[in-house]
Structures
1.
Amino acid sequence: MTSIEARPAQPRRTPGRLLFLFAFHAALSGAFVVAYLTGDEDTYAMHQFAGYTALAALAVRLLAGVLMPVGPLRLPRPSLAATLDWLRRVASGDARAWGQRSPLLAWMALALLAVVGAAALSGAVADAVVPMEKLHEALGEFSLPVVLAHVALVVALLGLKKVAGWRARSNTRHEVIAP
Amino acid sequence: MIRRMLTHTAAATLVIAVAAFAFQAFSDGGSDGGGMTRTAWTLAAAIAGGDHDVD
């Protein structure tokens, strides 16, 4: 086989660390949905099962972040300076800023880890310390708007990226047509 | 990538819901089937009612 022969087509493999993040996101969001919908007293065992699943997923994620502080598994470290710079560039219409990964995602990830983590942890503590139930309930209710804000941010950033793509293609066409 | 995340999330939600349902059914009434029926009714009522109060 010479060096110019095409290699046999192989399905692209997802890196293990990315798969870990997919699995973590799936486990945490799935457990959150089930725990939120079963918060009633009659479905308490389901609520407990889902809550402890969320807590286990968070513990594994934190452990991975601590053990691997560099790379995709590191814990989110939002930067105010980078966020302000990105927002300024987005506002001024910089197409590259519209298409790149937003620093807002790190803030959102941190907020989600904090709020959902606090809700799950307070639930586990409330199993033993009954007065913690009110706090757990409040944190559970507060976590829903944070989760919805996360979804809204992802959709908005996806929209921004698409618009940046259209603008780039439109500019390229104009450059080709122009003499 | 987002589509893949949504697919994984939907699958995980289903798996966790089924596992949690089984856990509740067995803790309610053992393996005679009565616990499962009771759990199905209470779950449906809880979701339809939208009541998330612990007490």
2.
Amino acid sequence: MAEQHSHAAEHADHDHKPHGWRRWVYATNHKDIGTMYLVFAGIMFFIGGAMAMVIRAELFKPGMQIVDPQFFNSMTTMHALMMIFGAVMPAWTGLANWMVPLQVGAPDMALPRLNNFSFWILPFAFTLLLSSLFVPGGAPAGGWTMYPPLVLQNGASFPMLIFSIHMMGVSSILGAINVVVTIMNLRAPGMGLLRMPLFVWTWLITAYLLIAVMPVLAGAVTMLLTDHFFGTTFFTAAGGGDPVMFQHIFWFFGHPEVYILILPAFGVVSEIIPTFSRKPLFGYEAMVYATASIAFLSFIVWAHHMFTVGMPLAAELFFMLSTMLIAIPTGVKVFNWTTTMYKGSITFEPPMLFALAFLFLFTIGGFSGLMLAIVPADYQYQDTYFVVAHFHYVLVPGAIFGIMGGVYYWLPKWVGRMYDMSLAKWHFWLSTIFVNVLFFPQHFLGLAGMPRRIPDYAVQFTDWNMVSSIGGFGFGLSQLLFPYLIWKCVKSGQPVTSNKVWEGAHGLEWELPSPAPYHSWTDPPSDAVVARGAFH
Amino acid sequence: MSTVLAEQDDLAEKRKRGVRLTAIVCGLVAAFFYFGFIAMTLIKGWK
């Protein structure tokens, strides 16, 4: 063990690591860029979370208390944009940067300078977006979906919104290209496609989705821009355009976007559950094909987001049935995760706790999604808090818990120190309890008819809104434990005593010393090492 | 290519060509979707 540490220390002395600000501004090392993505995502998570606190404070009781309606609408719009494009997507890209080269036995991402560029676009994009809070008319308030003609009434913030979306899109597309190129070309000899870890597989499929749909969003907002400033009428009915066309284009992007946010979480959970069950993943190949099926189906279900705009009965039936079809590959995944645990020697360290919460709570989000797919029922649920409850169950205990589980799983490998296990369990339990207090009552509110995106509501909705707000404040406060825990781990965590960190872990990343050296796999791993770390 | 990648013997010309080719194909796919959807909306508007 001491030998391993001295090896790691020796390596650190000879890693030619740049120092000071140059290390970060000119970064081409995948670990540095991954760290920057994760820190950036963390900052955006707390800014977006602060906006959610404003929303929940205003909704604590009926009547207008704290903010005016325009600002409330800005908060709902900005919260979504910050969380989706600023927190979850960069967090996944950060994890991909850290883990994909380590897991496929590559020395770095294939295009390191492009990687630097992809990251450094983001702070500019989000500074621009956030600065729109201070322009006349306030920040964008027409919803993150940017439906015309409402979005065209945004005032000075409109071009800022459009430009920042373009920048986020460019960043995502370049990041995705880098992931695809790395996985397709830099795998270690012997690392066949069906030997790759599930996190790599899910990210490969996510990257293909990103390359296909982010340009669609960019095209849609480009057309909004020309409608607003250059006299085109793509989406303006008065000039022969079609506002409903925007909805179709937006959701052609928007539904695969949901899977862009969640597929990497499937990958993380598929790493964590076998490790802490001390069993190989059940049905590895089925998991790969299920992920690919979900990605394919995500392209042919978009109109379930817009049943109420009106469409032919045949189209309604097609989109309803294709949406329900997604339950099959998703069910395969849930079955395989459960079966992996069956007769396993399970322990409940924080990554496993987050993975289990993911399994239960994401499934709740999946079930409410099935309810929303039923056309006549959707006519009742559309634009109610039921929809808010549904997608928050998918994205918070789904995507966010996946990210947190991943960080708790790999953090000791990154920094070579173990975090405070009991504090991490506190973080888990507080998060899990409060996330349900926050979002479960929103199902009741929605079924009772409370519309979404309103700053005031009828008195009969008061009780569950109070409960939801208390859950929101509790969830928000408990997240402060997360950065504290990471900071404490980096500063004074117990040094980890083995490469593997977790007894049941398998994969190439666990063949490296802890902390992972600044330059890893400069010599590709041997066949024997690849075989030992192979996923199944 | 970073120094580390360039130094790796395995990453010889063939692998570098693969990197370039994959990146270019991905970029073209992205451009196809961007311009394709704008063109599709234009065509629909003319009908």
